[in-house]
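pinging the channel bc i need a second pair of eyes. not urgent but kinda urgent?? the chain im working w is below, pasted from the shared doc
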Amino acid sequence: RREFANDPLKLLVVDDSTNQAKSDKAPHEWMPPREEYWCEYVYRWQQVKEKYGLSYTSIERKHILSISESCH
């Protein structure tokens, strides 16, 4: 649990209002305000899911795939 909470894949420096807006929301519920960061965000989200063996909800998977299609 401690390793997960402090994993560098999940930790980013952001302002307080962005951190509060994100809270514990999944990508289909919240995306970074700067659209140019969306690809990196969903990539990191997928890496964390794989690293810890976490499952996706169907709506979460659909949203991530939709974002990923526009990434290089």
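so The first helix runs from residue 2 to 5. and The mean pLDDT is 86. — does that match what u expected or am i reading it wrong
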